[in-house]
Design brief:
single chain; 131 residues; mainly alpha; two-stranded antiparallel sheet; elongated
Length: 131
């Protein structure tokens, strides 16, 4: 199948499919005319890439772990022990990022709350006066 058919079957834009190829995530055959030609296994590969991107992995790591992934129903499972460790490390990185975002969210909420308290106080007592 050509890239347009893969795009329709996978629900992924042709631009994204070309990007996946540039990143080494897809390896279509090339005809003499230069057209990319994909087979049925590429539909599954695109689905796996999308799952891993949704899980927060970057394309460099996806390129490494993709050959060691199998589908267990609607989810992927690593079949290589070293890849499972890479995924655990990535999960730890994500956990750290989540904690940092939660801290930033709490700080911003405190700032907003303090501003609302000042604004509410000045509304009741008239405009703030300068010293």
């Amino acid at each position: 199948m050509f890239i347009g058919e893969l795009s329709k079957r996978s629900g992924v834009s042709t631009r994204s499919l070309r990007y996946y190829e540039q990143q080494g995530l897809l390896r279509p055959q090339r005809r003499a005319s230069g057209y990319r030609e994909y087979d049925e296994s590429d539909v599954a590969a695109v689905r796996r890439v999308r799952i891993l991107l949704t899980a927060g992995l970057h394309t460099n790591l996806i390129r490494e772990v993709l050959p060691c992934m199998t589908e267990e129903g609607a989810i992927l499972a690593p079949t290589c022990e070293e890849m499972a460790q890479d995924l655990k490390s990535e999960r730890e990185r994500l956990s750290s990022s989540i904690e940092q975002l939660q801290d930033a969210h709490a700080m911003l909420s405190s700032i907003i709350h303090a501003g609302e308290a000042i604004t509410a106080g000045s509304d009741r007592n008239g405009p703030p006066t300068s010293s």
